[in-house]
Amino acid sequence: MFLWTVLLIVLMSAIAYVAGRSRAAGLVVADGPRLHSLPSYHGLLVAAGAMLGGLALAILSALVLGTQSVVTPAAAVIGAAIAAVPLYSRSAADFRARNAFERVVLVVLVACSAVAVLTTIGIVFSVLFETMIFFRSVSPIEFLFGSHWSPTGTPASFGLIPLLVGTLLITVIAIAVAGPLGLLSAIYMAEYASPRLRNVLKPVLEILAGIPTVVLGFFAALTVAPLIRRTGEAIGLDVASESALAAGLVMGMMIVPLISSLSDDIINAVPQSLRDGSYAMGATKSETIKRVVLPAALPGIVSAFMLAISRAVGETMIVVMAAGLAANLSINPLDAVTTITVQIATLLVGDQEFDSPKTLSAFALGFVLFFFTLALNYIALRIVQKYREQYD
Amino acid sequence: MNAHVPHQTLVTPEKPRALASGQFKVTARDVDVYYGEKQAIKKLSIDIPDRAVSAFIGPSGCGKSTFLRCINRMNDTIPTCKVTGLIDVDKHDIYDPKIDVVQLRAKVGMVFQKPNPFPKSIFENVAYGPRIHGLAAGKTELDEIVEKSLRKAGLWEEVKDRLAQPGTGLSGGQQQRLCIARAIAVNPEVILMDEPCSALDPIATARIEELIDELRQNYCIVIVTHSMQQAARVSQLTAFFHLGTLVEYGDTDEMFTAPQEKRTQDYITGRFG
Predict the structure, then answer these.
(1) Alpha helix (H) ranges present in chain A?
(2) Which residue in chain B is spatially nearest to A388 when comparing CA positions?
(3) How distant, in Å, are the alpha carbons of A200, B125, B132, B263 from that of B176?
(4) Going by DSSP bridges, is the β-strand pair B237-242/B245-251 parallel, antiparallel, or unpaired?
(5) Taking 60 as the threshold, does the pLDDT of residue A263 lie above it?
(6) DSSP state, A35?
(7) What is the per-residue pLDDT across A67-91, written as a single tens digit (0 to 9) for each?
(8) Do the chains contact at B106 and A281, CB–CB below 8 Å?
(9) Are B168 and A390 a contacting pair at CB < 8 A?
(10) Does A141 fall in a domain?
(11) How far apart are CA A376 and CA B5, in angstroms?
(12) For chain B, which end, N or C, has fewer CB atoms within 10 Å of the first or last residue's CB respectively?
């Protein structure tokens, strides 16, 4: 029925277009008044009316009667006709179909962006409500400040701190790896590499960004983690088999292309006239980059870092495989830790009853995660406003 | 165009009055400049005197800016650009591999067509050069250099109370004077100006021209301009470029009253270009 509905709406729109256009074309008479709009605009307006009317009535009938009902295609046809016929009969030489169609375009664009915004708001509220339910059984104080996390234990305890610390630890390691590597390679690509080399390097780096995180995850778990453990043992350190360091390193490698690619674009956007000004003063290339180019590119670079941090905080697969599930409260990168995202994943995998505190705690964690990235973005915005060196 | 013409029109001691006292600061012999396959300058030879303003005029694409950018090797930043021939500043070949470009550019400063202050404070803009070249021993000395440079550029009175504000917040004419102050701050001997007034209104232009005339006492100034009136007002010597060659070079007054070459006359009377 769905297919029929879509086909019928398209068909109705096509008919409406042809009909509207030919009616408008028929209005032209020798020595008569000129048409305000080209006939194709009359056609487009009638077609847009048919499409929107058809869609509206079809969706309404599907909501009332279910998608399988034969009424839905019929409703599409009726809706299209109801919307198109008045528009069709309105066409006259002085009817401003061109302007009216412009308004239709605006409405469609607003509607599309409204869907994205409303969805986000909806998600936030649904997470918020589930979090409220969770807080009926576990006090917010215990959740936010508790230092012990074991949702399946008896008695279950929901202390956020170990997860928060674990998330921060892995994120810090990842950024410590990806920040310098990404930024310096961006500087190399934007300022030093020949255009030919750059055209090769940039796509290669971006391929790294295209590797699925599952692949990176088992690379971290099976290659990097044992390597770190053996190295650690060789120099007499006690390393967990699933260490935060392994997860952080691999996650850092994942973010390098993100930072380098964005920073490269931003550095390239700094006007050449500023570099010329600096070179003409007798500054060397690295002096110019350090004192002129990077300060001018700072806002963009900070937002690239923020995006990378959000990516690292939200990353799940690598940490599930490489960092493990043990909710240890530790800032030692050689220990096994776990993160908020990993816990959300493990809490919701498999069959769940959706009213137990254990499951509901996932929503609370999700809300914390959301709040965390929001706060980061806000801080970044303030930093940028304070230190930006604006060029025009 | 015959390759030998520039030699004939070289400044000779009996010709330009402006040269009577001066000594040549920049000399070029048989300079060719290529952008990839395209030749931008053909067999150019010229002598530019110290403590005078020399103006390069000519239609767009005639090579005047290209040659100007050869004098402090700013063309090095364009990968396809190739320069052959000899350019001397103070009798030293500046394309000698042993020459330090960074030192050269500190000695031969440049002001660009569009004011390009750094997105820093007014103070930091002027202090930029002295800082990277280590010209100031301490904060007080740096303050002095900044004040002196801003005074020379005629900007001090306007900005002395807001040195910490961004240079990009100044008006276009003030920004260009800031760029001149920035160039002066490293004690250059030659100042190259690439159409420094083309983005400015007539009042700001007059202010800059006045400044150029003052700076002439201490520097060798080369200015590229599209305005014949500007060349006549500020320069002592004028060089007319056309299609990558130097057509005529000589005393500005003579050039605008009795040009030797037909093409020069056509250009300055507005018959082409």
Answers:
(1) 2-26, 39-65, 71-90, 97-137, 140-145, 161-187, 195-210, 213-219, 225-234, 244-269, 272-280, 285-288, 294-314, 317-322, 340-348, 357-387
(2) B119
(3) 40, 12, 21, 33
(4) antiparallel
(5) yes
(6) P
(7) 777 788 888 889 899 988 888 888 7
(8) yes
(9) yes
(10) no
(11) 68
(12) N
Q: Residue A128 domain-assigned?
A: no
Coil, helix or strand for A50?
Answer: helix
Q: What is the C-alpha separation between A361 and A131, in angstroms, rounded?
A: 7
Strand-pair category, A149-150 with B245-251: unpaired
Q: How many domains does chain A have?
A: 2
Q: Report the distance separating Cα A153 and Cα B259, nearest Å.
A: 100
In chain B, which residue ranges form alpha helices assigned H by DSSP?
5-8, 64-71, 101-107, 122-133, 139-152, 156-159, 172-184, 202-215, 228-234, 252-257, 262-268
| Chain A residues within 8 A of B132 when measuring between CB atoms | 281-283, 287, 291
Burial of B244 (0-12, 13-18, 19+ CB in 10 A): buried
Q: Do B182 and A292 touch (CB under 8 A)?
A: no
CB atoms within 10 A of CB A28: 12
Give yes or no: residues A291 and A371 share one domain.
yes
Least Cα separation, residue B3 to chain A (angstroms): 31
Query: Range of A33's domain?
Result: 2-112
Looking at CA atoms only, how far is residue B188 from chain A in angstroms? 9
Summarize pLDDT for A155-202 with one digit per residue, the tens: 788 888 888 999 999 999 999 999 999 999 999 999 999 888 988 988
B104 → chain A, closest CA residue: A282
CA A106: distance to chain centroid?
24
Residue B88 bridge partners (DSSP): B27, B93
Considering only CB atoms, B74 lies closest to which of A194, A280, A291, namely: A280
What CATH number is given to the structural domain containing A349?
Answer: 1.10.3720.10
Contact B105 A280 (CB under 8 A): yes
Which amino acid type is present at position B62? C
Q: Which residue has the tokens 């800059």?
A: B208
d(CA A80, CA A38): 23
Distance separating alpha carbons of residues A79 and A75, to the nearest angstrom: 6
Closest residue in chain A to residue B124, using alpha carbons only: A291
Which tens digits make up the pLDDT trace of B66-117?
999 999 999 888 888 999 999 999 888 999 989 899 999 999 999 999 999 9
Same domain as A66, residue A172: no
Q: Count A/B contacts: CB-CB distance under 8 Å.
A: 76
The nearest CA of chain A is from the CA of B39 a distance in Å of 22
| Interface predicted TM-score (ipTM) | 0.86
Using a CB-CB cut-off of 8 Å, the residues of chain B touching A277 are 112, 116-118, 179, 182
Pairing verdict, β B237-242 and B220-224: unpaired
**DSSP assignment of A150-166, as one string?**
ETTSSS-EE--HHHHHH
- Is A119 inside a domain boundary? no
What number is the average pLDDT over the span A266-285?
92
On chain A, the residues whose CB falls within 8 A of the CB of B182 are 277, 281
Residue B31 vs residues B9, B39, B84: alpha-carbon distances, Å: 15, 11, 6
Give yes or no: residues A103 and A232 share one domain. Answer: no
Does residue A143 lie within any of the structural domains? no
- Shortest Cα distance from A200 to chain B (angstroms)? 18
Residue A129 has pLDDT above 70, yes or no: yes
A296 contacts in B (CB within 8 Å)? 118-119
Both tokens of B14, joined, read 């009996």
Q: Is the pLDDT of residue B13 over 60?
A: no
Q: Which of the residues B71, B105, B145 would you substitute to probe the A interface, choosing the one with the greatest number of A C-beta atoms within 10 Å? A: B105
Q: Which residue of A has its CA nearest to B182?
A: A281
